[in-house]
């Protein structure tokens, strides 16, 4: 039984409640969706003045956040101690370490790949892009 004619509804058909629900083919279910882009990458830059910043470096690496560690404001002995700590941290987490400049290092967790491109500078001091 479909719909009933009801005089209270000015001749409109009133549902009887005894009919099957409509079934629609959903084309979107079978189509592949475009993968969402990952969240923007985050890199932490630290300029420690003492070894007490080592914990902060370790926490960021354990959270899979790359760290640029600038040791230019540390004295020689503390900077060496920080590099030793960073080396052990990177070894223990299977990460990577790259020297960017004198006393500046990039520490990366295991899931981050760093591509180093060494091309000679031309006579103007810029990289030759040709």
Notes on the protein architecture:
By secondary structure, the protein is of the alpha+beta class. The chain contains 3 helices and 6 strands, in the order E-E-H-E-H-E-H-E-E. The strands form 2 sheets. Strands 3-4-6-5 form a 4-stranded mixed β-sheet, covered by helices on one side. The chain has a two-stranded antiparallel ribbon with strand order 1-2. Helix 2 packs parallel to helix 3 (76-93). The radius of gyration is 31 Å and the shape is elongated.
Low-confidence stretches: none
Beginning-to-end CA distance, first to last residue: 78 Å
Tally the beta strands.
6
Quote the beta fraction: 15-25%
| Strands ordered across the widest β-sheet | 3-4-6-5
**Number of helical elements:** 3
Helix content: 10-25%
What is the molecular shape?
elongated
**CA radius of gyration:** 31 Å
Q: Topology as H/E string?
A: EEHEHEHEE
User: Quick one: biggest sheet?
Assistant: 4 strands, mixed
> What class would the helix/strand composition place it in?
alpha+beta
Q: Please, what is the average pLDDT?
A: 79
Labels describing this entry:
alpha+beta; four-stranded mixed sheet; 130 residues; two-stranded antiparallel ribbon
